[in-house]
Amino acid sequence: MLLHIWADFVLIQGVGPLGFSMTLFQSLATAAGYDPLKGPGSSCQAPDSSGQCVLPWAGGVKAVSSIVLIANGLSFAYEEGEITKEEYELEESLEKNRISNISTTHSNIGYIATLCLNLTLLLPLKGNPRVNNYVLVLVNSYWVLTGIWWFIFQQPRPGPPVPEGHNYLTIGWKQIWTACKQYKQLPNTFTHLFGFFLLADGLNTTGTLVAICQNDKFSFSFLQNTYLGLAQAITSSMSTLGFWYIQKYWKISTKRMFVVTNVVTMLIPLWGMIGIWTERFGFHKEWEFWAYNVVFGLFQAPYYAFSQTMMAELTPPGFDNMFFGLFGLSNRASSMIGPNVIQTIIDKSHGNNWYGFPFLFALCVAASIIIWFGVDVEKGRRDAGRWARDKRAHQSVETEVQNLGLEEKEK
């Protein structure tokens, strides 16, 4: 509410000078004009003027008031603000990307702050055998101190009442099932969800497997892991803002930006797969894990931002909770499949962790192909808008029928 008041206040401050500029224009035109009864060279502001004032205009003369009105009308006609539907969709997409990128950047800035906080203990107490425990206490205290205020000061946001025949334990799952049944009407939305399910599985499991390979080859200390995290967090913040600047400057679509991050998502397990046949590289050397964190920060941080925007563009307006619930479920549920498959593969290969990378590479390639060639964002956006309008119209009819039923019962 307070934000809305401030927005109105700022708007009023902007409109005020606009009205003043019109008065100033009329005043200057009057000063330059002449009295038509006395002829050119006379002054409209003379004590004995007739009250009329004209100026040369378009080969003739015209009253100052008419000139002001014509100029005002022409300026509104020229700056009417009309844009095509395609231009509007592009601007809306860019705005969604701006919000997603700002959110991701702030997340990484918080990551940097926490890692720097770790260094305040890790560096001065480097030789202390209990320094790792102190760091855990510090980070958890930081988490509690910064997080508890949300629970104290959060504003109540009551949603609609739970429908009859439902309860809080089942309503979420029923909404997910209801959303899943719409796949025929929203093919692009659900194709993207399926592709993202596979891609998230491949990316998340690849990160886990790289960490396992790192721990298998090297024993990095808390301090070294903090430096690795800083390398990733700093490059993540820089790349997220950099990708956003590139997209905004050249007005590149969300899908194309997402495709760029997909390519690197595929290359990471491909690099690990090479390690099956050689130990010269393929996550066998220490420098590779530094490179991995830098590359991950440069390309996979924007992946998270663009994946959210892709989903936002394919989500029916007004039904964000329902479809982002599916989006979140596809991200989390996928993490239950990949690790179990990789575990089986590694067990079959007598504990060789690198044999898990071919499966992850194939998974990322399959997911990328589905998203690249199977998702038409423009058509999906139109389908989502049409579905939302039809759904709201249907709900409106149902509400009217229910109200009529209640009125009949009261009679």
UniProtKB/TrEMBL annotation:
<keyword id="KW-0926">Vacuole</keyword>
<protein>
    <recommendedName>
        <fullName>Autophagy-related protein</fullName>
    </recommendedName>
</protein>
<dbReference type="InterPro" id="IPR050495">
    <property type="entry name" value="ATG22/LtaA_families"/>
</dbReference>
<dbReference type="InterPro" id="IPR036259">
    <property type="entry name" value="MFS_trans_sf"/>
</dbReference>
<keyword id="KW-0072">Autophagy</keyword>
<keyword id="KW-1133">Transmembrane helix</keyword>
<dbReference type="Pfam" id="PF11700">
    <property type="entry name" value="ATG22"/>
</dbReference>
<keyword id="KW-0812">Transmembrane</keyword>
<feature type="transmembrane region" description="Helical">
    <location>
        <begin position="227"/>
        <end position="246"/>
    </location>
</feature>
<dbReference type="GO" id="GO:0005774">
    <property type="term" value="C:vacuolar membrane"/>
</dbReference>
<dbReference type="GO" id="GO:0006914">
    <property type="term" value="P:autophagy"/>
</dbReference>
<dbReference type="InterPro" id="IPR024671">
    <property type="entry name" value="Atg22-like"/>
</dbReference>
<dbReference type="GO" id="GO:0006865">
    <property type="term" value="P:amino acid transport"/>
</dbReference>
<comment type="function">
    <text>Vacuolar effluxer which mediate the efflux of amino acids resulting from autophagic degradation. The release of autophagic amino acids allows the maintenance of protein synthesis and viability during nitrogen starvation.</text>
</comment>
<feature type="transmembrane region" description="Helical">
    <location>
        <begin position="354"/>
        <end position="375"/>
    </location>
</feature>
<keyword id="KW-0472">Membrane</keyword>
<feature type="transmembrane region" description="Helical">
    <location>
        <begin position="289"/>
        <end position="306"/>
    </location>
</feature>
<feature type="transmembrane region" description="Helical">
    <location>
        <begin position="134"/>
        <end position="153"/>
    </location>
</feature>
<comment type="similarity">
    <text>Belongs to the ATG22 family.</text>
</comment>
<feature type="transmembrane region" description="Helical">
    <location>
        <begin position="258"/>
        <end position="277"/>
    </location>
</feature>
<keyword id="KW-0813">Transport</keyword>
<keyword id="KW-0029">Amino-acid transport</keyword>
